[in-house]
Amino acid sequence: DSDEGSEELVLTPLQLICSLEQAWLNEKFAPELLESKPEIIECVVEQLDHMEANLKRAKKGDLKVSVHRMEIERIRYVLSSYLRCRLVKIEKFFPHVLEKEKSRAKGEPSILSPEEFAFAKEYMANTETYLKNVALKHMPPNLQKVALLKSVPKPNLDSFVFLRVLKRQENILVEPETDEQREYTIDLEEGSQHLIRYKTIAPLVASGAVQLI
Predict the structure, then answer these.
(1) May I ask the CATH class of domain 13-155?
(2) Domain 156-212 CATH assignment equals 3.30.750.24
(3) Residue 174 β-bridge partners
(4) Which of 18, 30, 174, 177 is the most buried (most CB within 10 A)?
(5) Distance from first CA to last CA of the chain, Å, rounded?
(6) Which tens digit of pLDDT belongs to each residue from 28-81?
(7) Phi first, then psi: what are they for 62, rounded to 5°?
(8) Which sequence spans correspond to the domains of the chain?
């Protein structure tokens, strides 16, 4: 891009698919909804269209066609699984997701794509309407309101996750497991694998320093 002050990250097809797979695994194993990756999704869809167009021009009976067709189906599976996983989390934690979106600071990346944001708002409105029509309107006036933020469980950030370290990290603060223990710090060596509390390494997941597995 020749525009002054603008920057565009250029990825090879292999790097793009690796980025999708990393986002998919992180989303699959993280207890909370992670930051949306609309640029990756858009580029993957464009890449799939390009691959499909190449297959149509290939000679029939070419063994490469079968191999490339299998790769296309694999990428489609990862993409659909990633998006489905995000929708499941939105449905499960919708009031907390919307509250986080509402309170995020200016310039802070959104955890929702525009389409996911619209879905979350509609899902919340439908849930409130359903509760009102089925149950709340039959209850005393003082009990006809429900606080969804308190009623719907939050993501369990204290759950433990497996991870692989992609970039060496120093002095990661680990909270004690019991009252008798104290806080301590650890170094995470590149390539090492760990089982650790999610909220301890949540910022490292967001930065791409570690990969959930």
Answers:
(1) mainly alpha
(2) no
(3) 184
(4) 30
(5) 35
(6) 999 999 999 999 999 999 999 999 998 888 777 777 888 889 999 999 999 999
(7) -70, 130
(8) 13-155, 156-212
